[in-house]
Amino acid sequence: MNLLDKLEEKEKRIIDIVLNSNNEFKNKIYIVGGVVRDLLMERKIKDIDFLIEGSAIDFIKKSNLKIKSTHEPFNTVKVEILGEEIDIASTRIETYDYMGALPTVLKTGVNIEDDLKRRDFTINSIAYNLHSNKIIDPYFGQKDIKKGVLKVLHKNSFLDDPTRILRGLDFKYRFNFEFDKNTASLIENCLETFNNEHLSIDRIYLTLNKIFSYSYSNKILKEILDKKIYKIWLNKTDLKEEDIEKLDLAKEIFNAAEQNKLYISALESFFYIKPPLKNNFEIYEFFKNFNNVQLALYYFKTNDKNAVQFLNLKNIKPEINGNDLKSLGFNEGKFIGIILKDVLKEKILNPNNFKTKQNEIDFVLNNYSPD
Predict the structure, then answer these.
(1) What is the share, in percent, of the chain residues with pLDDT greater than 90?
(2) Are 80 and 125 part of one and the same domain?
(3) Do residues 94 and 177 both lie within one domain?
(4) Does residue 210 surpass a pLDDT of 80?
(5) Residue 266 falls within a domain, yes or no?
(6) Does residue 59 sit in the same domain as residue 115?
(7) Residue 332 has pLDDT above 80, yes or no
(8) Residue 178 and residue 53 in one domain
(9) What CATH number did the domain enclosing 163 receive?
């Protein structure tokens, strides 16, 4: 099977450029993981990253490719090809010193089979040799793709890296797959025994931001609540499964495009105060520094209709500005700021009295004297 036949022309050109950039590494250049999985599933790929059986840095030093950056500890390189940023990695063996810690690289330049051992699920542990057009699949990932199952490679997989549970939920709903019985049992065991003392919280948030950005992310959130998967990094949450529909409604009302931030915040936030706001200007002042995600979360938590009213107020602005006030004889300084704020307040409280810019000028001249 020649997987490259399924690529678009630009992707084929990128591969040709890499393959022809260094003849010393012939038969040692691979694509691996998600790109191979997606090609086998006849899905559109997002990007092409390369794996070198050996040293990626040595490979790139002897090539004519444009280097953007190198990372010595992982022996990886970023290059630019046809305007695209491409990662070139070295095969490696990793270990985890503690539950949930970031991996430590033990050795780079290992054979491809050893590299595949460190990956999350069998469906992502498939490599493709770009010279021989040969698939390397020691963990039968192709078989699991056909069966539609998610299977880890070893029993400590989730204890080493619990973000694999979160990524597994992404694959489950993206591909309509299911965890196999043993993998589901290992997830339960991880949630019961995992010690998050050394957890890389940055890695958690990186994963959450990704998996909560999709159209099906509310299904992922529901399972996180149902199976208490949030316990990986949280002791508790007051978010409930039945709240998700209400949360999504708040997202729509306030056009909270950053769904990932809204879902994370909803999982982690507990206490919200609903202040007694007496008029539209107080509503404006209270909410003026809220972004759309914060507005949606506040409304979800409090059901305060004042947040919805703010949507009608937030774009109200004075037509006059500091230069207009100076032309009327007012000196530049704090006083101008005070006047403009008072104009805004009156415009919000009495919109019918401020139809034109001249209405604002008249208000200023009737209430303030130039220096």
Answers:
(1) 79
(2) yes
(3) no
(4) yes
(5) no
(6) yes
(7) no
(8) no
(9) 1.10.110.30
Return the structure tokens found at 166.
């979160």
More reliable by pLDDT, 330 or 237 = 237
Range of the domain at 178: 148-233
Segment (H or E) for 50: strand 50-52
Q: What is the pLDDT of residue 24?
A: 85
C-alpha distances in angstroms, 299 versus 209, 249, 269, 278, 289? Answer: 22, 10, 13, 18, 15
- CA pair distance 55, 115, nearest whole angstrom: 13
Residues 341 and 360 reside in one and the same domain: yes
User: What is the model's pLDDT at position 1?
Assistant: 66
Secondary structure of residue 155 in the 3-state scheme:
coil
Burial 134-153 (b: 16+ CB within 10 A, else e): eebbebebbebbeeebbbbb
> Looking at the domain assignment, is residue 289 inside a domain?
no
- CB-based contact 227:187 (threshold 8 Å): yes
Q: Is the pLDDT of residue 46 over 90?
A: no
Query: Looking at residues 114-128, what average pLDDT do you find?
Result: 96
371 has pLDDT over 70: no
201: three-class secondary structure by DSSP = helix
Q: How far is CA 142 from CA 41, 130, 137, 170, 324, in A?
A: 9, 18, 7, 19, 71
Looking at the fold, whether 25 and 142 belong to one and the same domain comes out as yes
Say which residue the tokens 């990695």 belong to.
Answer: 89
CA distances from 267 to 222, 274, 297 (A): 11, 19, 10
What does the alpha-carbon distance between residue 76 and residue 203 come to, in Å, rounded to a whole number?
19
Domain final residue, candidates 198, 213, 233: 233
Domain count, the chain: 3
Structure tokens at 102: 């970031």
Query: Does a structural domain hold residue 23?
Result: yes
Q: What would you report as the CA-atom Rg of the chain, rounded to the nearest whole angstrom?
A: 28
116 and 174: one domain?
A: no
Pick the residue with more confidence: 279 or 198?
A: 279
Query: What's the pLDDT tens digit per position in 70-80?
Result: 998 889 999 99
DSSP secondary structure string, 262-274? HHHHHHH------
287 in any annotated domain: no
